[in-house]
Amino acid sequence: ATLVDDGETVLLDGGSTTYEVARLLLGRPLQVVTNSMPVANLMASSADCDLVLIGGNVHFRTGVTMGPFANTMLRDLNVQHTILSVAAVNQRGFFNSNILQVETQRAMLAACDEPIIVADSTKFGSSSLSRLCALDEVSRLVVDAEVTGRWRERIEQAGVQLHIAPFNAEKNKESA
Question: Exposed e or buried b for every residue in 131-157, given b needs 16+ CB within 10 A?
């Protein structure tokens, strides 16, 4: 959340990791674009947020919109940051398990000045059904401190700015 300045426009996709980013952005003066109904519901509670909800087919389990209607809407938008979560990271890049979701995430990448991936360290070294993009196609990667030294080196060699997210045990106890 510290990578986003007040007054900027940020696009957040769905997923538990991006939802946590949204929680940290709540109450800040931002323009938020999202395809996530849970993120939209959270942000709609803030008077400081100018919220844009992307339309499209709603995935029943995640409450995320995707597909051709979402992709068409995204073609007309421009945001400073797109923050995406992924299911897997390996030497070939970033992956997710839903092909329609990945197509919409690609449209989200095309709509931004700076793509940011957020992922926990358990996603590294694995694969999933559909490849989103190569490692070097994102500007920044935010991950927890458990990411291995080998992966830190690989990410930095790809030219990606690596950010280690701070862990706040007290805050996690409160939300448990």
Answer: bbbebebbbbbbbeeebeeebeebbee
